[in-house]
Write a structure and sequence with these properties.
Layout: H1 7-38, H2 52-56, H3 59-78, H4 84-111, H5 121-140
Length: 149
């Protein structure tokens, strides 16, 4: 499909398909976390009540988690001596956490009749659970390029 792209063969021969995809998704996670760190947005999960939950779900801490997990995936993808399972597990942490938290926010909205939480959080929970499924499917694929090394 992308035979015209010269970097394709270099990445595939040096890293393999899984590690290349691991690095690309790690880069996306890194950029997403960086955007959360630099943005001054309110909590994505709605008002969940005062205290520790609001503080833990602030854009700063959420962005930091995405950046750290993205960096770990990038390092794991680039460093071939490290098993790529570490990187794929790091990629799973932020979207799994956001799936649970968005689902929790929607549940709080339902049970408090709109006082806390967010009415549309269930949509975000579905979106982030799809990201989890994509990473899980990709992590289970055998890499045919590993046989050559």
């Amino acid at each position: 499909m992308f035979r015209w792209w010269p970097l394709r063969n270099v990445l595939r021969k040096h890293y393999g398909r899984r590690r290349t995809l691991l690095g690309l998704i790690g880069l996306v996670w890194l950029m997403f976390g960086w955007a959360l760190l630099k943005g001054n947005s309110p909590s994505h999960f709605g008002r969940l009540g005062p205290g520790l939950i609001e503080w833990a779900l602030s854009a700063h801490w959420a962005g930091l988690a995405w950046v750290v997990c993205g960096l770990l995936a990038l390092v794991t993808g680039a460093w071939r001596r490290m098993p790529d399972a570490y990187g794929f597990n790091a990629l799973l942490i932020p979207p799994m956490l956001w799936t649970v938290l968005y689902g929790w926010s929607w549940g709080i909205w339902v049970f408090t009749r709109g006082e806390y939480g967010s009415a549309r959080s269930w949509v975000q929970a579905v979106i982030w659970s799809c990201a989890v499924v994509v990473v899980m499917i990709t992590s289970g694929w055998p890499d045919p390029d590993d046989k050559d090394r």
